[in-house]
Amino acid sequence: KPAAGFEGVKRISYEDIGGLKGELQRVRETIELPMRHPEIFRKLGIEPPKGVLLYGPPGTGKTLIAKAVASESGAHFISIAGPEVISKYYGESEQRLREVFEEARQNAPAIIFIDELDSIAPRREEVTGEVERRVVAQLLTMMDGLEERGQVVVIGATNRLDAIDPALRRPGRFDREIEIGVPPEDDRAQVLQIHTRGMPLADDVDIGYIAQQTHGFVGADLAALAREAAIKALRRYLPEIDMEAEEIPPETLEKMEVVSKDFRE
Ligand code: ATP
């Protein structure tokens, strides 16, 4: 059953994540296990985490992982982006954070995902803005006050781990850090596989070769590459497509495919 927080949000499963096997395993141990089986943690006498930081370059799958863990564990999912919390109206940012935590508490198990955490929680000494200072303080208060250990977990995502206020990285806050890095070749192949699985690929398309040729591409780049390839294929067929026609002849649809050269930039 989809969690309440997923109304209108696309469900993401672990199968939608290419590569990142070790990372995903750690995320699941850290978040999903205590959420599903708090008794194990009670038995062992350890506290499940309240906060987990996913860090790494943009487009590597941090948001995807957070959504997948929520979908797969049936947790309510609330997503906020750092910059959107910052309000110029006095007290509004703090109010927004209180509402988010309250919603999570009432719908537990729940995951609060804060994207671009560094924008609301930069090192306080670097902060010039009074709003940011108060938002960090509010976030610390909310996390310290969380009593639903393991049943409400905050996942923060950032591209810059060193820009996060150290107070937020202390025990009992965001005390687990998992790096989501640039994918190696094998992982790139898996990401390409996922993003081309709905496409009619010609036999000459060699995913392994494309993975080899795309050093430095992150998941978002590979998703874009696959999309672009399909658009290039579409352009090749355009001259044969009669836009005015009631329907596209099945033979035309039948022969459409994405070929190797469509993937070339
Ligand atoms: P940002 O720091 O910019 O928020 P992010 O790390 O959260 O980036 P995502 O939003 O998870 O990145 O990824 C963007 C898109 O790129 C995803 O919706 C997905 O289509 C694709 N993508 C990224 N990583 C992967 C992956 N490992 N497997 C499959 N698709 C991926």
Salient structural properties:
5-stranded parallel sheet, 265 residues, alpha/beta, 11% strand, 11 helices, disordered N terminus, binds adenosine-5'-triphosphate
Could you characterize the architecture of this molecule?
This is Transitional endoplasmic reticulum ATPase. Belongs to the AAA ATPase family. CDC48 subfamily. By secondary structure, the protein is α/β, with parallel strands linked by helices. Helix content is 45%, strand content 11%. The protein binds adenosine-5'-triphosphate. Adenosine-5'-triphosphate is lined by residues 17-20, 58-64, 115, 157, 159, 191, 194, 219-220, 223.
The unique ligands bound to this protein are: adenosine-5'-triphosphate
Strand order of the largest sheet: 2-3-4-1-5
- Provide the gyration radius in Å: 22 Å
How much helical structure, as a percent, in the residues?
40-55%
Mean pLDDT: 89
Q: What structural class results from the helix and strand content?
A: alpha/beta
What's the number of extended β-strand segments?
5
- Helix segment count? 11
Low-confidence stretches: 1-8
Largest sheet, strands/sense/barrel? 5 strands, parallel
C-alpha termini separation:
42 Å
Give the strand content.
5-15%
Protein name: Transitional endoplasmic reticulum ATPase
Domain AAA+ ATPase: 48-184
Family: Belongs to the AAA ATPase family. CDC48 subfamily.
Organism: Methanoculleus bourgensis (strain ATCC 43281 / DSM 3045 / OCM 15 / MS2)
